[in-house]
Amino acid sequence: MPIEKIHENGIIKLKNNKYIKILKIIPINYNLKSDLEKEAILNSYKTFLKTCNFNIQILIQSNKEDLTSHISNIEKKLNKKENKYLIDISKNYINYINEINLNKKSSSKNFYIVISNQLNKKNEFNNYEEIIKNDLKEKYFKIKESLFRCGNFIIEINEKKEIEKLFNSFCNTRKNLNNT
């Protein structure tokens, strides 16, 4: 793992003297918006991109989902239904979900933004770490405010275990991609 230290506020010091912060983005469903809403979202997103006068990295993580438990929940509820029409609809839905599950076409996506600050020779003085942490906090609030205008929610990842789990999942994914 390239991590040297995880600070209590979720700021991660990497072994190459780079500091990063990972933000999880809870996206909106753009396709369900009206044309006017879509235009407002795009304008807000343009503002976000103009406002972020620093490097960001956008990561998307896809995870295959097993829908077996979802199917069994529907089957349990199916036994309680008395309306033949609802039973037929439920059975068709179960068949559809089974097909998706068998073909392994179901997945969930997680979206992340990584912000960073590099320690270099020019800013090596007593409180450099505090300056870098404050810079990352400023960037976080700028991103949070800008993406909130687009309708997204931003979750600040602060817990050490969650950060380690996330790094493991990304490192293992990249490792598996390099082996194929």
Instruction: Give the radius of gyration.
Output: 22 Å
* Biggest beta-sheet profile: 6 strands, antiparallel
| Rounded average pLDDT | 83
Gross morphology: elongated
Count of extended strands: 6
Low-confidence stretches: 175-180
Structural class, from helix and strand content?
Answer: alpha+beta
Series of secondary-structure elements, N-terminal to C-terminal: EEEHEHHEHEH
N-C termini distance: 21 Å
Helix segment count?
5
Share of helix, binned:
40-55%
What fraction strand?
Answer: 15-25%
Relevant terms:
180 residues, alpha+beta, 6-stranded antiparallel beta sheet, elongated, disordered C terminus
Q: Any overview of this molecule?
A:
The chain is an alpha+beta fold and 180 residues long. 49% of the residues lie in helices and 23% in strands. It has helices spanning 35-51, 68-78, 84-102, 128-149, 160-179; strands spanning 3-6, 12-14, 18-26, 56-64, 107-118, 153-156. Strands 1, 2, 3, 4, 5 and 6 form a 6-stranded antiparallel beta sheet that branches. The chain starts with a strand and ends with a helix.
Summarize the entry for a quick read:
The protein is about 50% helix and about 25% strand.
Present the secondary structure layout.
Elements: E1 3-6, E2 12-14, E3 18-26, H1 35-51, E4 56-64, H2 68-78, H3 84-102, E5 107-118, H4 128-149, E6 153-156, H5 160-179
Antiparallel strand pairs: 1-2, 2-3, 3-5, 3-6, 4-5
Helix pairs in contact: 1-4, 2-3
